[in-house]
Amino acid sequence: MFDRVFQEFAGNPCVADGERVLSYAETLALGQRLISGLPEARSLVVLRCSVSAESIAAYVALLHAGHVPLLLEADLSELLSEQLYAAYQPSAIVDPVAGSVRVTDAPAAELHPDLALLLTTSGSTGSPKLVRQRLAGITANAESIAQYLALTADERPLLHLPMSYSYGLSVIHSHLAVGACICVTRKTVMEPGYWDDLRQHEATSIAGVPFHYTTLRRFGEEKLSLPSLKTLTQAGGRLDPRVVSFFGDWAARTDRKFFVMYGQTEAGPRVAYLPPEHAAAHPDAIGVAIPGVTIELVKEDGASAAPGETGEMRIHSPAVMMGYALERADLAKGDELGGVLATGDLAQLGEDGLLRIVGRSSRILKVFGLRVNLDEVERRIATPEAEVFCFGADDKLQVLIHGSLDPVEVRKAIVDAFSLPPRGIEVRNGGPVERTASGKVTAAALQAAWEQASKPA
């Protein structure tokens, strides 16, 4: 895809960053200058990225040159960064905003011919687990997104989501696929500068996670009453149906479109979307499979779930990852999943033909769009003198400790080590948690201990 679009759309505006507007040809040329110090041979390269023209340019240049980028945010915690460097031993580390290329003395990694991109599974939990993606999968997902969003070269999305986050990256991929111009801002929706950038760039769309839309709803409709703004997309976790209904109704009344979307990094990432005409009336649904993807609901006995029955979502898609990498040697592995992914999410197909998530079979939460493996958090925080129990719901990680740990310090440690937003974490210190005869902790026992615990941090 990248070779084609940078030839076909060479003269089109590609990235707008402040007052700068770079064409597709200029973006690729900038990226090539930024990575000019890399080894010529195909290499594993860490890209310390931010929401900037330089980061987008360096990223596309790395793919164009055949290197395999591992995307990490420029402000990622030093602890997590060093863990990943030690586990994967990249040939180079590129910081495009600083204009630096650091070539390491690590031996060249053995890279599978199909391997094109590495993403962290959450960007947050301190795990060395990476998602291995093929260029064909990236392309298939980008083109599918462009199809159901009806994107054209006239689009001007305002991007503020991190590049290393699969949702943010998918905004880039899908708009590059049609020759559109990606407008970037380093402001958040809470800052006046965000709205200044939205107006300055005459942005046609914005993309956000549930927190962003909850905030936008509090601002009221006036903030969004910009003539250029036509499309809003949401992913990164479940959005309160009341908020979905609000934006669905607003979009219908103002001749705009509001898309609720579902996905996973491992799936490329986009899997399903709610057609905008259903948002106001069916705000609890994730909708239908995107073009080129099939969603199967599988019951515990392995049989397919009938409409109204609950089953785990199993994805069949050309964009499904090749598999995970847990260590450097895994980068040489081929496709281990064959385009099929068990998501761990439980869903039902309604009589209206729309899918709805009804639960989660795995120990994973989404905290403001960041996937958190509860087992990994527990392993990191627990000590011989203290037990740690993690649970909760999307956007609320609850941590119950029993032992000699300070809840305030535990909360700070989680924020620092896992790069999670503090507002999504609550820590309490309580007594022992009742266990069953087999030594297991039930959800009821955990909730009871939580309610009896001391004041949260």
Descriptive overview:
The chain has 457 residues and is of the alpha/beta class. The protein folds into two domains: 2-359, ANL, N-terminal domain (Rossmann fold, 3-Layer(aba) Sandwich); 364-452, GMP Synthetase, Chain A, domain 3, CATH 3.30.300. The protein is 28% helix and 28% strand. It contains twelve helices and 25 strands. The strands form six sheets. Strands 2-1-10-9-11-12-13-14-15 form a nine-stranded mixed beta sheet. A four-stranded mixed beta sheet has the order 4-3-5-6, with helices on one face. It has a four-stranded antiparallel beta sheet with strand order 16-17-19-20, with no helix packed on it. A hairpin with a 2-residue loop joins strand 23 (386-393) and strand 24 (396-403). The protein is globular, with a radius of gyration of 22 Å. The relative contact order is 0.10. The model has no long low-confidence stretch (mean pLDDT 92).
